[in-house]
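Readers of this paper often ask what the protein records in our data store actually look like. Such a record has a labelled line for the sequence and another for the backbone structure tokens. Nothing more is needed to write down the fold, since each code stands for a local backbone conformation. The remainder of this section carries one protein's record, kept here as part of the documentation.
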Amino acid sequence: MSAFIFALGLTLMHFLWQGLLLGCATAIALTLLRNSRAEYRYLVACSALLACLCWPAVELYQRLNGHADGAAMSGGVLRLAAQSIVGSQPFDLRDSMRDIVGLWALCAIVLSLRMILGLLWIDRAARQCDCDHRQDQLRWEASLSRLAVRFGVDRDVRLRIVDTIASPITAGWWRPVVLLPAALVAGMPPDLLEALLAHEMAHIKRHDYLINLLQNVIETLLFYHPAVWWISNRIRTERELMADDLAARQLGEPRRLALALSELERLQFSTHHLAQAANGGNLMDRIQRLCRPAPQALNWKAALPMLGLALACMSIYAEAVAADKVAVKKVHAVADFDSCPKPAWPEGAIQRNETGTVTLAFLIGADGKLKQSKLKKSSGHPDLDEAARTGIRKCSFKPGTSAGKPVESWMQMQYVWTLE
């Protein structure tokens, strides 16, 4: 198994508890900010989703560059976890690491292809021109241009009327495009449809279509964790609330936008995962918020599962730390005394009948070579101290290890000088 596959597999598995921790922290923060502005909750959710990407990315980088004993340490954790599950059977999860990474890669590829196909569909819809709706398209393009001026959007915004969708969609990569359902053009009053376009213009003003693409990338890479999908859904919900607020301020008529959303609610539609449309979140909650905003009370019953998840997360983290400490065994460097010549007794010391015990400390490198020495306890006679230091330097050493890897470590040795 390659080092990259093993490091990637460890990173994916460790994100199980990391994502749970981030999800619990996000839930607590959003609960505390439930009556604050949507911008604050949006910032918290976006920061949490970005942390879901950065935390495992940093850990993967550290494992690949050997900045930590991640591979050996986590390998011990995997073995301990496997033994706790299957008892005393010699099962090592590292044997399944290649299968875990392979399954993750296969699912990520499928989701990536789905995202690419969605982008191609949007690009095709943006390029094609339906002659049957030519007059309507020119009319609403002019309306969209006027809204762009009111919102202070100076980039070119395209508009296309499409038969295959049921709600407005704002999408794109560099140049945003608004896809307008033909059913809305034909059946919705113009003033209400303009309110929906104002909502889409609010997304363009905030570059939400680009943030939404980044969300899809993170969802593709970390698709296996429910916390990622929950946080991403909260981002979309808060994003819609912010777009509602911005559109209502520019229109000066929150009620008109609320009526437009109520008309939209009567339609049957499906949400396009690659687009940022006016149908995100709960439409009834958004309508009520526009017409009659009210503070949200804390639902303690809903908070109990969150508290349980937080306690579970803390327990998993504590077990992982404890397992890491058990798994990482440190062995100090030792000297090969068979290779040590007998130290020469200083002539002056013999004449003076000097004896004593010398305690020396040695720093042994990962290559087994002596790097530094110092006197820890003197025998009381400088000649004996120096003779012991000179003699022990001629020994061969075996380096210390940590988690099975040679490391630099200190060791102590004593030499007893006695006269017989």
